[in-house]
């Protein structure tokens, strides 16, 4: 058996159909809204990698610090033989986890919607870790997953704070779906960004170099390319704000003047008033009590809570 396998549970055209549905729904409602997953074409993924290196964007460095410090404790607590990573992207932080789980680790199962990201990361990893089975899944994991038949116990990792992109009701559903994938003795490793002072949070989503602004506007380029639309990035301003009631960051695109966006593939003309905003992302920030309660509501028990030295970000280990 080849040490690299790839299973696609996402139809080639599923992404296209989902984009059309999201754009039609999100741009014909008030207020206008698009889900953040459409940022991540090749250019958007590159811009996100650039964001993770910005001085203002602390979450990636903070989470890496925790993983490096705690990987051996994760290994001891879980004894995992299969590591499943949801939204694996470049798998960069996961390497530390994999190295701590070896030699018991039999399989690494990265799950992502991007086949190219999976192939690149999977092959790079294999070159360095011969003997490890990498079974990549091209899948949309938001509705739960059928996992390949690899040895337990399993550790499911969902890192980066990406769970914060889901509004509370979707988070509930998502955690329940993860719970449904776990057998007794399996565990979830969850990364969450933490509530902190507003200036630090806003700067992380509105950097001085304008990389996050370019990332935000990239969703317009995706719509233009995929749906033949005529949105112009220069007609919009990047907005990042802290919603203190919901304790989340919102990113928006604000029309600089009255304009229309034509979307021929949807037979749609979308008017924007001057200053009208399109919400493109929420990124929720958490507290320990909230994480514990959300896990418990899904039938998961918080077993470990680790933060970086500065207390900016948390890694939770939960058991089924
Ligand atoms: C990768 C989803 C965790 O919400 O902080 C970075 C994406 N958006 N800058 C986040 C993002 C703007 C990021 N996540």
Work out the radius of gyration.
Answer: 20 Å
Q: For the largest sheet, list the strands in their spatial order.
A: 1-5-4-3-6-7-14-13
Please work out how many helical segments DSSP would assign: 9
Ligand types? N,N,N-trimethyl-histidine
Mean pLDDT: 94
- Unreliable stretches (pLDDT < 50, length at least 5) are none
Q: Give the topology string: H per helix, E per strand.
A: EHEHHEHEHEEHEHHEEEEEHEE
Shape: globular
The helix content, as a percent range, equals 25-40%
Query: What kind of sheet is the major sheet?
Result: 8 strands, mixed
Q: Quick one: how many beta strands?
A: 14
The rounded distance between the terminal residues' Cα atoms is 31 Å
Report the β-strand fraction as a percent range: 25-35%
**What structural class results from the helix and strand content?**
alpha/beta
Topology:
Layout: E1 4-8, H1 14-27, E2 32-33, H2 42-51, H3 59-78, E3 82-86, H4 94-101, E4 107-112, H5 115-128, E5 133-138, E6 154-158, H6 168-181, E7 187-193, H7 198-204, H8 211-227, E8 236-243, E9 248-255, E10 259-263, E11 268-272, E12 277-284, H9 288-297, E13 301-307, E14 313-319
Parallel strand pairs: 1-5, 2-12, 3-4, 3-6, 4-5, 6-7
Antiparallel strand pairs: 7-14, 8-9, 9-12, 10-11, 13-14
Helix pairs in contact: 2-8, 3-4
Bound molecules: N,N,N-trimethyl-histidine.
N,N,N-trimethyl-histidine binds at residues 51, 59, 160-162, 164-165, 205, 212, 281, 283.
């Amino acid at each position: 058996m080849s040490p690299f396998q790839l299973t696609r549970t996402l139809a080639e055209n599923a992404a296209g159909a989902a984009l059309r549905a999201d754009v039609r729904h999100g741009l014909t409602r008030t207020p206008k809204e698009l889900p953040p997953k459409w940022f991540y074409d090749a250019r958007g993924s590159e811009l996100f990698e650039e964001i993770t290196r910005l001085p203002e964007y602390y979450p990636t460095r903070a989470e890496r610090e925790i993983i490096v410090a705690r990987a051996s404790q994760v290994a001891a607590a879980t004894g995992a033989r299969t590591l499943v990573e949801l939204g694996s992207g470049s798998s960069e932080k996961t390497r530390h986890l994999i190295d701590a789980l070896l030699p018991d680790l039999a399989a690494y199962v990265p799950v992502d919607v991007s086949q190219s990201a999976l192939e690149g990361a999977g092959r790079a990893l294999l070159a360095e870790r011969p003997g490890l089975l990498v079974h990549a899944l091209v899948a949309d994991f938001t509705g739960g997953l059928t996992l390949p038949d690899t040895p337990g116990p399993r550790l499911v990792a969902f890192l980066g704070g990406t769970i914060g992109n889901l509004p509370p009701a979707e988070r509930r559903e998502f955690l329940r779906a993860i719970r449904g994938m776990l057998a007794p003795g399996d565990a979830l490793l969850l990364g969450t960004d933490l509530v902190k002072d507003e200036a630090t949070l806003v700067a992380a989503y509105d950097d001085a170099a304008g990389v996050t602004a370019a990332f935000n506007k990239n969703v317009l380029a995706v719509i233009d390319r995929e749906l033949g639309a005529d949105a112009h990035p220069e007609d919009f301003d990047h907005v990042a704000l802290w919603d203190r009631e919901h304790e989340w960051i919102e990113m928006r695109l604000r029309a600089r003047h009255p304009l229309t966006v034509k979307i021929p593939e949807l037979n749609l003309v979308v008017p924007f008033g001057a200053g009208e905003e399109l919400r493109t992302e929420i990124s929720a920030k958490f507290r320990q009590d909230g994480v514990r309660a959300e896990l418990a509501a899904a039938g998961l028990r918080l077993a470990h809570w680790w933060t970086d030295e500065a207390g900016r970000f948390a890694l939770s280990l939960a058991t089924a």
